[in-house]
Amino acid sequence: MGTIEKAILAVVTRDMERVAGGAPIFYAETEREMEHLAFTLEKILDGMAHRLDPLTMIIVRHA
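User: That's the sequence. What structure does it adopt?
Assistant: C-alpha cells below.
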C-alpha cells in the first residue's frame, strides 16, 4: 500500500497578518491579483490551488 503525501508549496493572501509559516507567502492587493498569482503558481509548481477563505489561497502538491 502506498502513502499519500501532501505539501503546501505556497500561500497567496490579501492579509499578511493572517498567515505565517515555512511556505513562501505572496501578498496580493486585490482578489483578482490573488487569483492570478495562485493560478500562475499552480502551473509553475505543478500543484493545485485551494481557497481557504476569501482572503487566502494555498497551492498544494498532491502526490
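The beta strands are 6-13, 25-27, 48-53, 56-62.
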